[in-house]
Design goal:
single chain, binds NADP nicotinamide-adenine-dinucleotide phosphate
Length: 212
Amino acid sequence: MKVGILGSGDVGKMLAAGFLKHGHSVMVGTRTPYKLAEWIKKNPQATIGGSGDTTKFAEVIILAVKGVAARDALIAAGVSNLAGKIVIDTCNPIAEAPPVNGVLKYFTDINESLMERLQREFSGARFVKAFNSVGAASMVNPQFKGGSPTMFICGNDDAAKKTVTGFLGQFGWETADMGKAEAARAIEPLCMLWCIPGFTRNEWSHAFKLLT
Ligand SMILES: NC(=O)c1ccc[n+]([C@@H]2O[C@H](COP(=O)([O-])OP(=O)(O)OC[C@H]3O[C@@H](n4cnc5c(N)ncnc54)[C@H](OP(=O)(O)O)[C@@H]3O)[C@@H](O)[C@H]2O)c1
């Protein structure tokens, strides 16, 4: 598929390389293309553009920008360009404040997630929360002693979630579909939980697994 990545941080670069590895066409949309000079040498099949061009090109969009900038990034991408597109939302609503005893602060509260806000405002897009509850280094075909990890996803569009589940299978993940957009209230804070061993013990190599 044609995959457009909005954002050129660790997540954008890692997922762009992952989609290339699995045979998809990838365009990265960024305001700062010079930051990708080294990355593009290693990933010459990708193209780089502005966020509007990337969103027009894409069948599936990966939103991988700072949570505080997610709304602005989608506006810059062009509301009409988003219509009907799957948007895989990797963003966490991390506030501009330091963690307390290893616990991140969020600018949302427990009864309203970032993805619900985005789904409400950009109602023509089909948002699926995914990839937000693990570090970028473990997103693409990670190897854990405990086997395949679980990615928790949610969103209002079943067909979009089916497509994302297919991508997650290619990337070595089991998928646990937690339901509609409101489930992002529970999935976004998994990032807080995931980061605690990192901030307190410098342990960053783990992922969640749902046992039944
Ligand atoms: N890092 C991880 O391991 C990890 C894991 C899971 C989820 N996440 C989440 O994934 C998202 C991306 O994380 P990251 O670590 O890759 O990068 P980040 O440092 O959180 O964000 C970097 C990106 O944000 C974009 N950005 C910042 N301000 C912007 C604005 N005003 N308008 C448009 N774009 C703006 C930049 O876009 P340009 O390219 O245009 O400069 C840049 O590429 C975040 O929401 C994060 O919480 C991160």
